[in-house]
Design goal:
By secondary structure, the protein is an alpha+beta fold. It is 33% helix and 23% strand. The protein has a single domain, classed as (Glycosyl)asparaginase (Glutamine Phosphoribosylpyrophosphate, subunit 1, domain 1), CATH 3.60.20. The protein has ten helices and 15 strands. The structure holds N-hydroxy-L-asparagine (SD4). N-hydroxy-L-asparagine is lined by residues 89, 186, 191-193, 211, 213-214, 223-225, 244-247.
Length: 333
């Protein structure tokens, strides 16, 4: 008999708790309500998506304290999540695609419009660092699949087995329960892509985004996270934005580019994020049942963060404090 359990119901059922509760549980960090006012801080500032962003922010701030710039900090910051096997949407330990293969997407961008990215990369746990190498040593921007892996090996990255036992178990259970009606939508309770923006004391802004993408995705699917302007965009004269959630929506709206262009036209990062989310709602006929969120940071140190649904959290390291916040949400209660 074919089970009617869809991917999202399966995950809700398996995890049994919402993303906010999961976040609090995982990090043990106090969750703060987001202040309503436009927030601005002095650099250095690091903002990133989700609760594991707290540890990644710490990694980024450590790099800054060691005299590194915003670009180094963004890379080393998100490496922390990539290396954490308990983060199931990024790097090592990421949930696999429907064939049981972990494929990773990532990109990086600096204040001079320099950028690099990799899509559907296998067996290399730090795709953002491979993306940085694409940026630094080639005149290309994006490498995918086998070619990206060959490049990474040539650049000296070690080959790793990324499918951990818990992730394999998740996949086996998911396969067992899978419905013939499966919709390949991003499950509501598993949105852990890390997008990070760093503003250093020289006023330089950089960003990074890295993910294993949608759990159980069709093999070969690439999401928004490695696409410049979709999962991440940085304009060194204006600000930057990073996205998490249902990647297809960020691809078809060029979501992070839209946020930054909103800022260029004078919106605060907060309003820019909310406006771009409203665009996604509009093109979906005024109603959405999936999650999507942005974080944004202007070169003046203004901060923005918003999501479609409740449950989105972001980590902000500013003025000496590294804290986890609930993002403002447009839909739901
Ligand atoms: C994707 N945007 O591949 C990513 C998914 C995500 O946390 O954000 N997961 O569509």
């Amino acid at each position: 008999m074919v089970s009617k359990l869809t991917r999202r119901k399966f995950l809700t059922k398996t995890l049994g708790i919402g993303a906010a509760a999961l976040g609090a549980f995982r990090s043990g960090t106090r969750i703060l309500a987001q202040p309503e006012t436009v927030r601005q801080a002095e650099p250095p500032i690091v903002i990133s998506t989700w609760d594991h962003g707290v540890a990644s922010n710490e990694g980024a701030m450590k790099a800054l304290r060691n005299g590194m710039n915003a670009l180094d900090a963004a890379e080393q910051g998100v490496n922390v999540s990539e290396n954490d096997p308990d983060v199931h949407s990024v790097g090592l330990g990421g949930y696999p695609d429907e064939d049981g293969i972990v494929t990773l997407d990532a990109c990086i961008m600096d204040w001079q419009w320099r950028c690099g990215s990799v899509g559907a990369l296998q067996d290399i746990k730090n795709p953002v660092s491979v993306a940085r190498q694409v940026m630094e040593v080639t005149d290309h921007i994006m490498l995918v699949g086998e070619g990206a892996k060959t490049f990474a090996l040539r650049m000296g990255f070690p080959e790793d087995k990324l499918l951990t036992e818990p992730a394999r178990e998740w996949w086996l259970n998911w396969k067992r329960e899978l419905s013939s009606q499966d919709d390949w939508l991003v499950p509501e309770d598993v949105h852990d892509t890390i997008g990070m923006l760093v503003l250093d004391t020289d006023g330089h802004l950089a960003g990074a985004c890295t993910t294993s993408g949608l759990a159980g995705k069709i093999h070969g699917r690439v999401g928004d996270s490695p696409l410049i302007g979709s999962g991440l965009y940085v304009d060194g004269e204006i600000g930057g934005a990073a996205a998490t959630g249902r990647g297809e929506e960020f691809i078809r709206t060029n979501g992070t580019h839209l946020v930054v262009e909103n800022m260029r036209r004078g919106m605060s990062p907060q309003n820019a994020c909310e406006d771009a989310l409203r665009r996604i709602v509009k093109i979906n006929g005024g109603m959405v049942d999936f999650q999507g969120a942005f974080v944004a940071l202007s070169i003046n140190g203004e901060i923005g963060a918003a999501s479609l649904q409740p449950g989105f959290q972001y980590a902000l390291f500013a003025e000496g404090r590294n804290e986890l916040f609930d993002g403002k949400h447009l839909m739901g209660d």
